[in-house]
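Quick question about two entries, pasted in order.
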Amino acid sequence: MDCAIATLFWHRKKQLIKIISNLKYFPKKMNPLDEYRIKDTKPRLGERWPHGGGRSWIGGDKITTTYDLVEQMFYLYVRVVKARDLPTNAVTGGCDPYVEVKLGNYKGKTQRFEKKTSPEWNQVFAFSKDKIQSSIVEIFVREKEMVGRDDYLGRVDFDLNEVPTRLPPDSPLAPQWYRLEERRRAPESRLRGEVMLAVWIGSQADEAFPEAWHSDAAAVHGDGVFSVRSKVYVSPKLWYLRVNVIEAQDVEAAEAAPVFVKGQVGNQVCKTKLFPNRTANPVWNEDLLFVIAEPFEEALVLTVESKVGPTRDEVVGRMSIPMHVLERRMDHRPVHSRWFNLDRLGTERKFSTRVHLRACLEGGYHVLDESTLYISDQRPTARQLWKQPIGIVEVGILSANALLPMKARGTTDAYCVAKYGHKWVRTRTIVESFSPTWNEQYTWEVYDPCTLLTLAVFDNCHLSGRDSRIGKVRIRLSTLETDKIYTHSYPLLVLHPSGLKKMGELQLAFRFTCISLTQMIYLYSRPLLPKTHYIQAFTISQLDKLRYEAMNIVASRLGRAEPPLRKEVVEYMLDVESHMWSMRRSKANFFRIASFFSGLVGTGRWVRQVCEWKNPITTVLVHVLLCILVCYPELVLPTGFLYMFFMAVWNLRLRDSQPPHVDTKMSWAEGVHPDELDEEFDTFPTSRPQDVVRMRYDRLRSVAGRIQSVVGDMATQGERFLALLSWRDPRATTIFLLFCLCAAVVLFVTPFKIVTLLLGLFLLRHPRFRSKMPCAPSSFFRRLPARADTML
């Protein structure tokens, strides 16, 4: 019996192992870092839906639309156009109508007009199929509530089973006039006006979707219900304003007071250097740089001022130049200079002060409002210099999962923002949901593949505070394969003062389509920015200042849109705080450099092992390769390039199939010290106590001291190399000159192959022929003088 059982178990072993592995009582051990990684998803995108089928909304087959990167969602659309012949109020003699659309527990209201019997609203309401709790949609025409009056003027009801379905590319449904019914539907009910309506069933591909009031995006705030719709924004067109201050004439400043020119555009202020008051015609020849946006709202204000005291400046003259009179140049060609008269201020002056300027709007530059590391556009300002797009990128913002509560009452009202180039998009706000579903698709034209698409999720504060960050995702287009649909769930990671926290996951579907492969390959040989950036380059300090001003302008203009894109959202998308000091980032960058040199260190370690005969077989093979390359030197370069070719082919199998995302280990976000986090989130200037600031300053001095030592050692090695021929040590230079002379004679009479072979055999000599003492060349180099002994 025991033998029979053992035999049966042996034959059924594979099936038992499979059954046990599928049991939920034996879960697999999960790596704690897996929650920070990208996950593959398989959403039911548009291209996977079956074609044809019935058009019934409830229980019918889904129909393919042009939105092939999102899951199709059905909505009941109600378009309220206008009304006519509404009854007037017997008390006031007027009518203050508005329309209320009710479907189950969801209500949407139009704007209320005062004293209008024929109002026009032209507003669309959208109710999601998944949240409908009634089969009847009711449209009420109401008036401003008054005591003792009926609660509505009239109503129109629709049965959902009779509502038509209209999906693109069907033609739009024309609105119709419907007579209003009274509250009591008796046969003798008299008619009380008409309302023009259109009711249909459609998807998010409908043209009415972006501007519609959505039931899943409505929230109660203040006195009523409002909805934050999806919105497409366009960044303002930015220009660099260059004002070359050449000179001035007849400047009557205070005695012995230096003068300077100050330029101001809005909140931007630039000043020239002080010119000593030795003549009435000072000369500066300096550039003042500003960032301005179309439409131009501010003028250029220039003042000539004299420095009469440490904190006191006296205005000599002032003038204002409108932007539309300035010349716009597309390249680096010089601009014609002009003389401008300054308005006299204060006391009467003998002569009119003039200033000589060369001012223009620079159209050949790309105005940087984001870091070049995360740049999404490189086109110059002037549209005449734009090239044709080389592709398009399509993004389907599907949904988010497992979001954390962001408000004190334990809710989250999430929306997603995406930016690429000049185009910003914002999804609708899904209220009180930890797993919001958007299913909105957007498209951008691509002019350069080496750019990044940025997406971020925020919690809507509904005008009562700042929108909270939930997480950010960056997608570099050059890492994507063309015409491939990527469907992934990205973890939303945010660094808080308490440490790294996963705020949820964002599900995306995106595709990069190439229009011209030849043009895209050609772009890899072109400069990243327009050529004006290299012909007339800005300094690092100028670029930082101009980028800061550009970000402020973009945030200000987008904050005035409706609905506004708040300042904290724009700053988070543009990485305003990326330049701030952080011990965590400093350590991460240090280890990035160490990781880069680790390959060279590994190669050097392998060469040392070969030279020390750790593996005799490998060393013998290296001897054979050395002899072949010395005898046939024409094989050196082909062998090197062929080696790199096979290395690239070998690494192809190791290529990650997923786009890159945040690496928490490389960012040093997992094991960061709490005090370092507190320092990173500190305000500027600091708001911490004096003892904490002293401790951090001492720590910074310690870290900077180690960096200073490393930099000093590198400088010492370079100075020793230069000292070989500088005669700082006459004896060392004489020895090196004699060595060079002897080496020149030996290399002249000895074939180069023999020299190379002997040198290679010497380096690969057996350890028994080696000494543990430093070699003569190394000792000689270390004895060379450096300039470190001349430092204080």
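Here is the second entry:
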Amino acid sequence: MTRLLIVMLTALGLAACAATADTPRTAGPPLPMVERGDIAIATMQEVTRTLSSDAFEGRAPGTAGERKTLAYLVERFAAAGLKPGNRGSWFQDVPLIEITASAYDPLIIADPRKPPEEAEPLRYDFGTDWVGVSYRPQKRIDLRQSELVFVGYGINAPEKGWNDYAGIDMRGKTAVILVNDPDHARKDTRGLFNGRAMTYYGRWTYKFEEAARQGAAAALIVHDTKPAAYGWNVVQAGWSGPQSHAVRDDGAKGETLVNGWVQNEAARAIFAAAGQDFAMLSAAATRPGFKAVPLGLTATTGFDNAVRRYASKNVIGLLPGAERPGEYVLYTAHWDHLGRCPASQSGDDICNGAIDNATGTAALVALAEAFTKAGPPARSVAFIALTAEEQGLLGSEYYAAHPVFPLARTAGGINMDALSLAGPAHDVTVIGQGKSRLDAYLAAALKREGRTASPDRAPESGFYYRSDHFSFARRGVPMLYFDGGENLLHGGRAAGAAFARDYTEKRYHAPGDEYDPGWDWRGVAQDLQLNYLAGRMLAQAREWPNWNKDDEFRRIRDASCGAPGGC
């Protein structure tokens, strides 16, 4: 998500000595030649200034600020020459649900093999020792004497010949899972799971999803600061209070009762009570052929849920293709922000979200104008302003689960989130470099513009899986995402790091993220030209881009290819 991307930007400028990623693979047919786009920075300035004004009240979903945002985006999309993208409507309804847990029972770990007088249960308090929520919209959650099973990294990856759940029936049981990937400790980005570069299998989202697919009653990830890339305080804050989700078609019946995390020291004590050595089992889980280990202990807990249902909207504008209108290229950005937030010392309590992400939303409008000026490309181009990114990629997740344009007919896309106002740069920072054929499109655009690509210097953090493009990628659609450059034309890497640090400390997710008339828009102009060129080439191309052969999303794309000739 954007917050973590901004944190990374600070680290990027300070980590010049970090290892670089492998050279991206760009082999494939020649790419079509396209002209540079006529991108109006005046449009960027006007739309960013308007959306981040106090009149829009921080653009929180379900508020008056949303209504103003939607009306304004429709006005700008129509003026740019787009057509309503959803069967005559500009909108896609996104039903949302908010679940707030309270009255937590402690997490009780017991040994049913021993009589109560011989074994005192382990008791862990919510927040201090463990955290957990439920995705099920029911008033009461009760996990009762659920058998604990250590499932290593909780991965089922057929294309890699790896299945931590092989031979175990998880129905009614609680999966205890390690964070990140089995080879995360490597210093390079090679290995079955890309070494230190986290894959989708290393993300906590995947681990909970797979546990649910296996029929588990609950899933608990063992926290470890280094492979998680954040401390327990982040887990504690993120897994407390209201949790929003896109409404699931099955009413969340296929979800576990409880998804959560347990402190590392608590996990070690639990394994010891089971007569197991946590370190030894963790080491065994890094090797192929690992088998899940029943711990012989049970977990019991419960809590109340308050459920609130509300709705928001994605905004979709379409430029129909001139030759192959049934094939699509996507540009995405999230329009939402936080709305009201803790007040600053001056009393300002509106989180305006100028950089995050009025800039990305404005980019949709400016790029739409440039595309219509140039005339329709061969493929249709959809410009999608997504809702509820700040609440967990909910608008993109809902669209990808209920696509207006079939994903099997979607050639690929480009996501834009929190554009850099640091000024012009020699480079861009590519998130997810080496994953798909779309690297070739960006490489061609960079070469044309005389710029270079800097790799993600913190691949172990899995930032590719934390913004809206991920919702599409996990369903097989190749998506391109890059941040502003590290190496500024004026001041180099030190200046880039200073800008990122100032934004993170003083304005990010705070009332200070306001429009600044003194911003240097030349870097934005550079980056938008790359977005235009890469997307225009993709919209003109006949090829059907795919993920690289060893990527975790390749088999999904292969199964859904809809273009003539396949992938």
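Reply: Confidence is low (pLDDT under 50) at residues 1-24. Residues 99-307 form a domain with the Glucose Oxidase; domain 1 fold (CATH 3.50.30.30). Hope that helps.
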